[in-house]
Amino acid sequence: MNWFFIIHLIINTCFLLFIAGCSPKNANKDRIEHKKVHNNKISQKGKGAFIKQQEAKLIDVPIPLDVVPNPNYFSDISSGDDLLLGYIATTSPDDLVFFYIQEMERLGWKNRSMSIGAVESLLYFEKPRRFCSVSLRPAQRKTVIIIFSGNRISS
Fold it and tell me: Of 114, 118, 154, which is closest to residue 134 (Cα–Cα)?
């Protein structure tokens, strides 16, 4: 009878280890590894195409003409609906604040909040299902523009 119990215990242990190996935890690890490989491919191919793809997703967010993409601020956030884009502009922060207030309103965005400062200006816009935050930071006669956009969370 002891042998029967030991064999039964070994079989059940193997079964539990097999089930644990098929858990979603490992599936998430595979997704993370896939994302690392994907991000390495982006850096190897050059970020130009990736930046263009991210910009195309924000068709209703204006981008000034005198900007240069800043690859340090472009990010493929885990959700496909959230985007982070960065640019460097030669336009002054004050002119860019005016530009974004005017152009975002023209494209259907509502200006919900604004904080204008010497170190950074933050503009927050909303649409019924989306939000967009624009950060303008002066830096050595240029302005760093950081745009973050995503889906709003219903309350």
Answer: 114
